[in-house]
Design a protein that fits this description.
Layout: E1 9-11, E2 14-16, E3 20-22, H1 31-40, E4 44-46, E5 63-66, E6 69-72, H2 81-95, E7 101-106, H3 111-122, E8 128-132, H4 139-142, H5 150-164, E9 169-173, H6 180-189, E10 194-197, E11 201-203, E12 206-207, E13 212-213, E14 220-223, H7 228-239, E15 246-249, H8 255-263, E16 268-271, H9 273-278, H10 282-296
Parallel strand pairs: 3-4, 3-16, 4-7, 7-8, 8-9, 9-10, 10-15, 15-16
Antiparallel strand pairs: 1-2, 5-6, 6-14, 11-14, 12-13
Length: 310
């Protein structure tokens, strides 16, 4: 591939060596696993979401693969914010030589708890904190996600921003809302530096022979190829209304998928399901295909791609 290609991107005050970002929830928070993904060539890694206390998540089965993607209801399994901060410190130290940035991810059941979790995680000095207000498979535990309501989403944004500033924050939005663009604009006004779009889409699969849903939680979050058209629409809608960087996430398995996500308006590209299907080598495959596209179309900088389809 041509050496003249500029693959770096800027997400708020952060500069990434390339736009690919390990999505939250894929490789946990283990420093060793995050370093392994970093070595594969991503620009940043996002640790699994953590909450106020230890959470075991849902009983098995929690994930199923089907023809068009994955359905999971892990249930936000995590060690709690204090232990997570320790893991993040280890991960940050191990990532220093690689130049790969470390993003944390947090969730909570109450608005005030978001501030408490954010404060503990911020002590580990991650490069960015992603605020997960949109997990689709813990409704019974936490009720309606904050991402479903613009006012609630903005209130959580302010709470977290006030606690962790100057660490930039990304608000992770849900696809199953009437007006994701308006919600994005509201959280940006409330202080969000970045938007992550999108979380998984609620869905269900049924075992006809057993006459019951396959997942123990009955419903789960849909990811993989089936999610891509929804993610592209959401990213494009948000990009038309806000002027902050977007991390586009959902169904990116190939370089063309990544190109499409950037053309829809994303600066960063979250990669999750690709690791399930292809392992860490998915990163080099996607990046090689992005570079090949740029060479074919005589492009030298990703800025020539971002938002091109809007």
């Amino acid at each position: 591939m041509a050496d003249h290609l500029d693959m770096s991107v800027e997400i708020g005050p952060l500069k990434l060596r390339n736009p690919l970002i390990l999505a939250s929830g894929v490789m946990g928070t283990s420093a060793t696993l995050l370093q392994r993904v970093a070595s594969a060539g991503v620009g940043a890694v996002t640790a699994k979401s953590c909450g106020p206390t230890v959470r075991e998540g849902h009983p098995n089965p929690v994930m199923v693969e089907w023809e068009h993607g994955l359905l999971n209801a892990i249930g936000l399994t995590n060690p709690g914010a204090v232990e997570e901060a320790n893991d993040l410190r280890k991960a940050k130290e191990m990532l220093k030589p690689t130049g790969v940035l470390l993003f944390a991810s947090i969730f909570a059941g109450e608005k005030s708890e978001f501030g408490e979790v954010a404060g503990k995680v911020a002590e580990a000095e991650p490069d960015l904190i992603e605020v997960n207000i949109s997990c689709p498979n813990v409704h019974d535990d936490y009720g309606l996600p904050f991402a479903a309501d613009a006012k609630s989403a903005a209130e959580v944004t302010r709470v977290v921003k006030n606690v962790v500033d100057p660490i930039p924050i990304a608000i992770k939005l849900a696809p199953n809302v009437p007006d994701i663009g308006r919600i994005a604009a509201t959280v940006v006004e409330a202080g969000a530096d970045v938007i992550t779009a999108i979380n998984t889409m609620p869905g269900m699969l049924i075992d006809a022979e057993a006459c019951q849903p396959i997942l123990s939680n009955r419903t789960g979050g849909l990811s993989g190829p089936a999610l891509k058209p929804i993610a592209l629409r959401c990213v494009a809608e948000i990009a038309s209304l806000v002027n902050v960087p977007i991390i586009g996430t959902g169904g990116v398995l190939t370089g063309i998928d990544a190109i499409e996500m950037m053309m829809a308006g994303a600066t960063g590209v979250g990669v999750g399901s690709a690791f399930w299907y292809h392992g860490p080598q998915a990163v080099s495959r996607v990046m090689d295909e992005v570079k090949a596209f740029m060479d074919t179309h005589h492009l030298s900088d990703l800025k020539e791609i971002i938002g091109k389809a809007l």
